[in-house]
């Protein structure tokens, strides 16, 4: 089904749309990368945070009334939004509001589920008088025109529209899995089923919810109230709200390919849940390839963020025994490659790689210092790590597993706490 964005009819509705970004989760599958901040605040692609993609999609789509719902270790996330997303103009009714868990309801609970997070802020949401409410997860990486999704919602007269994407059947148990009729009405919705149903005619694929919903505002209020009155609910959109609507209201599926923002020559409709160490490493390393799956150089759909004022990256020493160089890599501002070799790697801001080091197929987060003669292969180095001189990681699986975290795919995660234990 082809879905177009009719600017004449959709744009005024976009101004009456309120986006709510659910950004309170830890993301425990990222292991120690989320020990000190929520998953949406984890750095991505050299200079961004994961949440920047959902927020940039809103701005680029024409939605400039946004609430960000926070809970788990939210300080770095709040700080990032305050520093990088304060350019909207309140006098034009544009804003990004931070909505931390405040125990605003009689139960005095923290957010119990995604639906409860929205329910606890109903008084704030109502005060903005939206016609539509766009619910977003703050921990996925993708580029999407939400205006096209709203156009589809309006054209079909839906009560709620759920964005969906085809995923490998083997991975579908981690998603809400949907079945649709010929008109893309949702006829079944199972949250994280043990045995997901494949797409008809595609036995190796399942139709998965992306955690993106457009609700008619009053309809959302009504359903949240009904859910909150139930005793046997987890107060979650995927587990409770959406399944309860099937067969009773018009629940529409919106296929991601109709609103995905793609560049010329793109090979896929790019959407990533970078929620595991392996997925996070793979998505970052892909950006170092000649033609990555995600285009972050697209001026027509920019990704906005807070950017510290840093000096340019610097490469020094050029002799046969000590040459500062990086090949097939991304190197961010403030980095110094001092007589070291970096290959197929992504270095975030303020990383220093000292002489005689070798860094290959690795992701190094901000403010790290890699000591002389260190060798890192297929590693993720967490923010602020000081790698001791001569340390070798990524070459001996058994040794790495004793000292650090080693994933199923052989990625070694190194954190400052793990390095401190080595000192002891």
From TrEMBL:
<dbReference type="Pfam" id="PF00483">
    <property type="entry name" value="NTP_transferase"/>
</dbReference>
<keyword id="KW-0808">Transferase</keyword>
<dbReference type="InterPro" id="IPR005835">
    <property type="entry name" value="NTP_transferase_dom"/>
</dbReference>
<dbReference type="InterPro" id="IPR029044">
    <property type="entry name" value="Nucleotide-diphossugar_trans"/>
</dbReference>
<keyword id="KW-0119">Carbohydrate metabolism</keyword>
<keyword id="KW-0320">Glycogen biosynthesis</keyword>
<protein>
    <recommendedName>
        <fullName>Glucose-1-phosphate adenylyltransferase</fullName>
        <ecNumber>2.7.7.27</ecNumber>
    </recommendedName>
</protein>
<keyword id="KW-0548">Nucleotidyltransferase</keyword>
<keyword id="KW-0067">ATP-binding</keyword>
<keyword id="KW-0321">Glycogen metabolism</keyword>
<dbReference type="GO" id="GO:0008878">
    <property type="term" value="F:glucose-1-phosphate adenylyltransferase activity"/>
</dbReference>
<dbReference type="InterPro" id="IPR023049">
    <property type="entry name" value="GlgC_bac"/>
</dbReference>
<comment type="function">
    <text>Involved in the biosynthesis of ADP-glucose, a building block required for the elongation reactions to produce glycogen. Catalyzes the reaction between ATP and alpha-D-glucose 1-phosphate (G1P) to produce pyrophosphate and ADP-Glc.</text>
</comment>
<comment type="similarity">
    <text>Belongs to the bacterial/plant glucose-1-phosphate adenylyltransferase family.</text>
</comment>
<comment type="subunit">
    <text>Homotetramer.</text>
</comment>
<dbReference type="Pfam" id="PF24894">
    <property type="entry name" value="Hexapep_GlmU"/>
</dbReference>
<dbReference type="InterPro" id="IPR056818">
    <property type="entry name" value="GlmU/GlgC-like_hexapep"/>
</dbReference>
<keyword id="KW-0547">Nucleotide-binding</keyword>
<feature type="domain" description="Glucose-1-phosphate adenylyltransferase/Bifunctional protein GlmU-like C-terminal hexapeptide">
    <location>
        <begin position="311"/>
        <end position="414"/>
    </location>
</feature>
<feature type="binding site">
    <location>
        <position position="176"/>
    </location>
    <ligand>
        <name>alpha-D-glucose 1-phosphate</name>
    </ligand>
</feature>
<dbReference type="InterPro" id="IPR005836">
    <property type="entry name" value="ADP_Glu_pyroP_CS"/>
</dbReference>
<feature type="domain" description="Nucleotidyl transferase">
    <location>
        <begin position="19"/>
        <end position="288"/>
    </location>
</feature>
<dbReference type="InterPro" id="IPR011831">
    <property type="entry name" value="ADP-Glc_PPase"/>
</dbReference>
<feature type="site" description="Could play a key role in the communication between the regulatory and the substrate sites">
    <location>
        <position position="110"/>
    </location>
</feature>
<dbReference type="GO" id="GO:0005978">
    <property type="term" value="P:glycogen biosynthetic process"/>
</dbReference>
<feature type="site" description="Could play a key role in the communication between the regulatory and the substrate sites">
    <location>
        <position position="71"/>
    </location>
</feature>
<comment type="pathway">
    <text>Glycan biosynthesis; glycogen biosynthesis.</text>
</comment>
<dbReference type="InterPro" id="IPR011004">
    <property type="entry name" value="Trimer_LpxA-like_sf"/>
</dbReference>
<dbReference type="GO" id="GO:0005524">
    <property type="term" value="F:ATP binding"/>
</dbReference>
<feature type="binding site">
    <location>
        <begin position="191"/>
        <end position="192"/>
    </location>
    <ligand>
        <name>alpha-D-glucose 1-phosphate</name>
    </ligand>
</feature>
<feature type="binding site">
    <location>
        <position position="111"/>
    </location>
    <ligand>
        <name>alpha-D-glucose 1-phosphate</name>
    </ligand>
</feature>
<feature type="binding site">
    <location>
        <position position="209"/>
    </location>
    <ligand>
        <name>alpha-D-glucose 1-phosphate</name>
    </ligand>
</feature>
């Amino acid at each position: 089904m082809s879905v177009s964005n009719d600017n004449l009819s959709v744009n005024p509705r976009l101004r009456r749309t309120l986006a709510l970004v659910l950004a309170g989760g830890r993301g425990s599958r990222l292991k120690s990368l989320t020990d000190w901040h929520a998953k949406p605040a984890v750095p991505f692609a050299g200079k961004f945070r994961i949440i920047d993609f959902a927020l940039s999609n809103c701005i680029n789509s024409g939605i400039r009334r946004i609430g960000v719902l926070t809970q788990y270790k939210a300080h770095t996330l709040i700080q990032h939004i305050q520093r990088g997303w304060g350019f909207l103009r309140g006098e034009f009714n544009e804003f990004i509001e931070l909505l931390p868990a405040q125990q605003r309801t009689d139960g005095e609970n923290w957010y119990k589920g995604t639906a409860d997070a929205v329910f606890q802020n109903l008084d704030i949401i109502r005060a903005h008088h939206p016609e539509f409410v766009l619910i977003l997860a703050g921990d996925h990486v993708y580029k999407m025109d939400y205006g096209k999704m709203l156009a589809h919602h309006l054209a079909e007269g839906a009560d709620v529209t759920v964005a969906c994407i085809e995923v490998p059947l083997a991975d579908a148990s981690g998603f809400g899995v949907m079945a649709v009729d010929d008109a893309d009405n949702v006829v079944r919705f199972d949250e994280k089923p043990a045995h997901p149903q494949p797409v008809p005619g595609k036995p190796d694929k399942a139709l998965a919810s992306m955690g993106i919903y457009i609700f008619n505002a009053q309809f959302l209020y009504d359903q949240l109230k009904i859910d909150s009155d139930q005793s046997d609910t987890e107060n979650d959109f995927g587990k409770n709200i959406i399944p309860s609507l099937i067969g009773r209201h018009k629940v529409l599926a919106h296929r991601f390919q109709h609103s995905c923002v793609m560049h010329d020559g793109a090979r896929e409709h790019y959407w990533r849940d970078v929620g595991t160490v392996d997925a996070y490493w793979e998505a970052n390393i892909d950006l170092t390839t000649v033609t990555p799956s995600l285009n972050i150089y697209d001026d027509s759909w920019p990704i906005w963020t807070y950017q510290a004022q840093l000096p340019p990256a610097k490469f020094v020493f050029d002799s046969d025994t000590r040459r500062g160089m990086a090949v097939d890599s991304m190197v961010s501002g403030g980095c110094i490659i001092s007589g070291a070799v970096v290959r197929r790697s992504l270095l975030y801001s303020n990383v220093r790689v000292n002489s005689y080091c070798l860094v290959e197929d690795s992701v190094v987060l901000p403010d790290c210092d890699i000591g002389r003669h260190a060798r890192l292969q297929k590693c993720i180095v967490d923010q602020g790590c000081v790698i001791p001189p001569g340390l070798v990681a990524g070459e001996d699986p058994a040794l790495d597993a004793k000292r650090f975290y080693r994933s199923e795919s052989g990625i070694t995660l190194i954190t400052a706490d793990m390095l401190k234990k080595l000192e002891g």
